[in-house]
Amino acid sequence: MELPDPGVVAEEWWLAGPDGPDRPGAFLVDEVRRDERGDLLLRVPAGLPADVRSVWSSVTRPVDALLAGLQRSDDAPLAGALARQQLAGRPDPTIPHPVGLSAEQAEAYRACRTPGLRLVWGPAGPRTSAVVARAAADLVRAGRRVLLLGATDAGVDATVAALVAGLEPEDGEVVRVGPTRGVDADGVSLDRLAARETAVDDRRRAVVGHQLATFAGQDPEIAALAAELVGYDDDAYQRAARRVAAAEEAAELEPRRRAALAVMRTAATRHSLAIAARAAILRERDELAEARMALARIEVLEEELRRLDRDLRRHRTEQAVARHWAWRGADGWLDRRRRRREAKLADRDLAKAERDAGPRRSAVQWELLQARAAAGRITAADLAAVDARLVNAHADVLAAATQLVRAEVYAEELSARAEAVRTRGEPTDEDRELVAAALSEGLPGRYERLLRLRRRRPTSAAARGRLGAEHHALGVRSAQRRAAARAELVDGASVVATTVAAAAALPSRRYDAVLVEGAAAVPLVEALLAVGSATTTAVLFGDFQRPGPRLPGNVRTVAITDPGIATWVAGTVFSHYGIDSAERAIDTEGCVAMLREFRGAPAPEVVPLPAPGVRH
Fold first, then answer.
1. Which of 67, 243, 512, 543 could form a disulfide with 144, with the two C-beta atoms 3.0–4.6 Å apart?
2. Residues 324-328: contacts with CB within 8 Å, 24+ apart?
């Protein structure tokens, strides 16, 4: 939601009813940003009811924060120098500066790196912001803490964006205090960095918030639905709807049942044909049984003939070997006698084998002729083909039987469903009119919605109270933890950036350097408090030729007659030192005049800082 800038320094923002944020029903705002017009944008918390739109916060007026800061008795030598209209001399000329800077820019850069209080007369814009951002980055690299201030949030955001681009800091090293716009807020915004500490509680709080919003919106909806359903009898509707649905289902089932019966008859016919085909093949196989036996006998007899031939070849080989060695020269008569005896034995064995094999071969050949006559023209390939056809016939019978069973089951299921539908009864004309009227008005859906809402609604007001108390306790705890996290982040940051007005509400801490942009638009008293936070260096940038501080009309009227108001509230640091012209700015020692920047010189190039002691 959008909120005009109230011009105050706020702690946590809450959205609550007239009872305020201290009681259940208040919603903690998780993020606040600033739009292009300067208005505050509050992210609506999860589950926020539509009637909760009052904004609450514990605020501090800038003038109160300013008075509190001025009353602190901290030692502030640079603020004393400002009050006494004292400025330090020229910046240290030996300090190296980045390349690409004009002489005036380099002098302004050195002013930020040299101890003491100084002014810089320069135009507002990216050129001055780039010099300030580069000086702040190099101060951080040198181990210094920097307070970076601006007259407006837009100016602070621009400088922080340039600083983050050049320094590439880790999360929390540069902290932007206050609502941001156009900055990498996740790693810089103080509010977002602090919110990381409460991420778990915030997620739980969002869930509880959604539940509360859901419950809060249920009662009016339940009442409205109950009023709309007066006279509606859901039991009567359900009975009539069942009868009407049964008639529609019966009309839809009948053609499906007839189709299923036709499929079943077709499957039965296919099954019968498959069985008949298989029976024919079985008969054919039985007719070939004698031929199958004959072919098997032929194979056995042919193998026996081959065995007889192998035995005769073996005996002939042994005889030839024995005769060969019998006629070779022997070593003596004993050796010659032994060899001849072995040759005679081989001759007798061969003769005996031939005598034995002749009758057996004849018998086998006779049986082989009879077996071949019994087999006729049937071959082993013919038998294999019959066997293959029989296997396929078995598969066809099985497939047909499976299809038939499925068709029978489906047909029986449809018949059972049709019978069950008929038992519900026939719908009357009154049933059809009742169902049509209820559906046209959406009454059954509304009745179901009413039942769901009643089931989901907490059983008692105490349950809602517990959720509300939990939600509020989570919000309070998140606010406390964020406040502690903000203090730790500001204390540990190397650069703290905010507006001059908001800086008055920061905790009393010291910084090595305070760099202020837009000082010509800041009242002198605010600049005095800002300079009081510096221990070593304070540099105030501004253009005294532009309009001064924006003050209410009554304050300007009082400033005409009151010198104190004119000096400290309506005046600026430049008027305090009597700088009202270019000549006075140039002549004032401790004031750097960036004259070249008023003539449109290019913006300085952001490059790495050179090694110590190197001059450019």
1. 512
2. none
Q: Which of 386, 374, 363 is nearest to 298 (CA)?
A: 374
In this prediction, residue 605 carries a pLDDT of 45
Chain centroid offset of residue 282 CA: 69
Residue 279 tokens, joined? 């029976």
Distance CA 224, CA 220 (A): 6
For residue 542, the cross-strand partners are 121
Instruction: Name the token pair of 528.
Output: 């005095």
DSSP 8-state code for residue 230: T
- The Cα–Cα gap between 194 and 486 comes to 6
Strand extents, DSSP E, 110-196: 116-121, 146-150, 174-176
CB burial class (10 A; 0-12, 13-18, 19+) of residue 375? buried
CA angle 137, 142, 145 (to 5 degrees): 70
Tell me which residue has tokens 């300013």: 66
Three-state SS at 391: helix
Give me the residues paired with residue 14 across strands: 28, 56
pLDDT tens profile 57-97: 777 776 777 777 677 756 789 999 999 999 998 999 999 98
Q: Give the separation between CA 272 and CA 57, rounded to whole angstroms.
A: 91
Contact 504, 529 (CB under 8 A): yes
For residue range 137-165, what is the model confidence (pLDDT) as tens digits?
999 999 999 999 999 888 999 999 999 98
CB-based contact 87:64 (threshold 8 Å)? no
